[in-house]
């Protein structure tokens, strides 16, 4: 086909349910489902590429800002609170403690022995 470039196009507006029924009736459900999968994977790939590009751009901006302002001469110091001041400041307050990793805890445990019932 080598026409003038004016192709005739027809657009239909259909409800999702009726469109799915039409695709199934035409026997093109598998091709339609495959095209949807390919389309979603392509969109996912584009989103990953965009995200990586934005992360790289942000890292470059952070590095440029650090180079312009320089590294601060003194790092922020951690101030250690005296135990008596801590006790006074937090008297009567309930602490919510969460143990996420117990590797460095000392003392015996249930799984320290090979046979816990021995």
Description of the structure:
With 118 residues, the chain is mainly alpha-helical. It has a domain at 16-70. It has helices spanning 16-26, 29-69, 83-89. The chain starts with 15 loop residues before the first helix and ends in a 29-residue tail after the last helix. The model has no long low-confidence stretch (mean pLDDT 81).
What are the SSEs and their pairings?
Layout: H1 16-26, H2 29-69, H3 83-89
How many distinct helices? 3
Percent helix: 40-55%
Instruction: Please write the string of helix (H) and strand (E) elements.
Output: HHH
Q: Tell me the total number of β-strands.
A: 0
> By helix and strand content, what is the structural category?
mainly alpha
What is the percentage of strand-forming residues? under 5%
Based on CA inertia axes, which overall geometry fits? elongated
List the uncertain runs.
none
Mean pLDDT: 81
